[in-house]
Amino acid sequence: MPEWFTGLTVAEILTGVGGLVAVVALFRRVWRSVRPVWKGVREFLEDWRGEEGRPGVPERPGVMARLATIEADSAEAKARLEQQAAALVAIDHELHPNSGSSLRDQVDRVAKHVGVQPPK
User: Fold this and answer.
1) Are 62 and 49 in contact (CB under 8 A)?
2) In which domain of life is the source organism classified (predicted)?
3) Which tens digit of pLDDT belongs to each residue from 12-22?
4) Using CA atoms, how far apart are residues 71 and 76, in angstroms rounded to an integer?
5) Domain of 69?
6) How far apart are CA 63 and CA 50, in angstroms?
7) Average pLDDT, integer, range 2-30
């Protein structure tokens, strides 16, 4: 045995063991408080990074991959909305009297020719 250990009294040994037990108990108590937070952080990071597919389990894309998908989908939706807006402008042009070339102008001319009150 080392020389420093043989010179210790029983009280000094018990004090050292008690201090070690106290440190372990304190670490355990702190770990119980930190563990749920750490578990939440770990789950967040797993969701952020995503998960590769494996046999029987589909791939789970991470946040950045999902955002890229959302941006692509919104770009497609924006293009469709622009096409629909152009179609609505053309429809609106046909439904209101204007320079004589709209469908409404033609209906008014036919109604006047037939002698019927045109619709409002």
Assistant:
1) yes
2) Bacteria
3) 999 999 999 99
4) 9
5) 10-86
6) 7
7) 91
